[in-house]
Amino acid sequence: MFLGPSNSEGAGKVSLLKKVPALKDGDFTLAECTAILLYLSRKYNTPDHWYPSDIQKRAQVDEYLSWHHANIRANAPKTMWIKVLIPLFTGQPLPSEKLQEVMEGLSTSLKQFEERFLQDKAFIIGSEISLADLVAIVELMQPVGVGCDIFEDRPRLMEWRRRVEDAVGKELFFQAHEMILSVKELSNIQIDPQLKEQLAPVLMKMLK
Amino acid sequence: MFLGPSNSEGAGKVSLLKKVPALKDGDFTLAECTAILLYLSRKYNTPDHWYPSDIQKRAQVDEYLSWHHANIRANAPKTMWIKVLIPLFTGQPLPSEKLQEVMEGLSTSLKQFEERFLQDKAFIIGSEISLADLVAIVELMQPVGVGCDIFEDRPRLMEWRRRVEDAVGKELFFQAHEMILSVKELSNIQIDPQLKEQLAPVLMKMLK
């Protein structure tokens, strides 16, 4: 089985949607992070808490995964585009209003995340970690990696993050986020001018 | 069990996220269309083709449902905001460039939908209809309801729609889309001026 992140050579060939992450299992290829996690949980019959067999708990994971797309996923990664990737390709920083606008959207989403989903529970669906927490945390570490520490003034969110770190294991947690947490170092690399010219307008469009 | 569309009185009380559609089953409440469909398919043990037990086919449904959010769902309903709902609350039509921009985004999504998902298959995951087709069709009927017939110049998409209509049953299909297909009639209703003032900026923000 091949499971590749964005910087792996095989990923472009694998994903049907030419998107990363991508999974290849024999002749079978699959894109989309949530679909891949669900597939792996079924194929390897992972512990029940990741995607509980209880239909109400399972529905709560599904509810979060669906909400996630138009909220956390729609906002959090934009911080990386604005602070690192777009300046890298255009050669100029974006006006600060752009970041402020995204941070406001993210702030609204985080308020909902805390009040509607997390509430006073240890994890999104209750006392045990599930795929919902995993999908949320990897997206929420992206702003952290570019210097927008969204956990700083949100104690409830920070406590949840600590519980996720403990449940996953601190070593694995930081290994999984190593690239994201050092993404600012990308600012120092040189990029082919032609590639810059091609990609800059595409990147700008993604911010819309 | 209560399952309410946006115009039902109970919906606001039911949905944890104050969103519609919403489901209430005893004490259990659930928002998000895809989570509700998955819950119902499990609770009522619906025929296998809706969400196949084969893990690869199931993964393909999940892949589509995930992709759907940032593509079809992110574009198709905006046509209704632009053509009917925002003019209704602001009292003025939006500049035509706004609709054009949304239609271009939708066009890109539809190209991917046909080439990556539908291909030369009868339905999204093969020869049988699944939840992926249902989730896609209800979103794609929204532009049709406001006069942007996206099926007109897309024979492959139109053939797929006919197959979905047949699989669901034509009567049920049109019953389910009756409100969407007559949404233009909303333009004639009178709205409380204070409500207009409150909602206009919120609606405009949704277009971003």
Model description:
- 2 copies of one chain form a homodimer.
- With 208 residues, chain A is mainly α.
- Helix content of chain A is 60%, strand content 5%.
- Chain A is built from 11 helices and 3 strands; from the N terminus they run βαββαααααααααα.
- Chain A has helices at 11-14, 33-43, 55-70, 72-75, 78-90, 96-118, 131-145, 155-168, 170-176, 178-181, 193-206, and strands at residues 2-4, 22-25, 28-31.
- The first copy, chain A, has a 3-stranded antiparallel beta sheet.
- In chain A, α5 (78-90) packs antiparallel against α6 and α5 packs antiparallel against α11.
- The relative contact order of chain A is 0.11.
- Mean pLDDT of chain A is 87; it is low at 6-17.
- The A-B interface holds A 16-17, 28, 30-36, 38-39, 42-43, 55-56, 58-60, 62-63, 65-67, 69-70, 73-74, 112, 116, 208 and B 16-17, 28, 30-36, 38-39, 42-43, 55-56, 58-60, 62-63, 65-67, 69-70, 73-74, 112, 116, 208.
- Chains A, B: Homodimer.
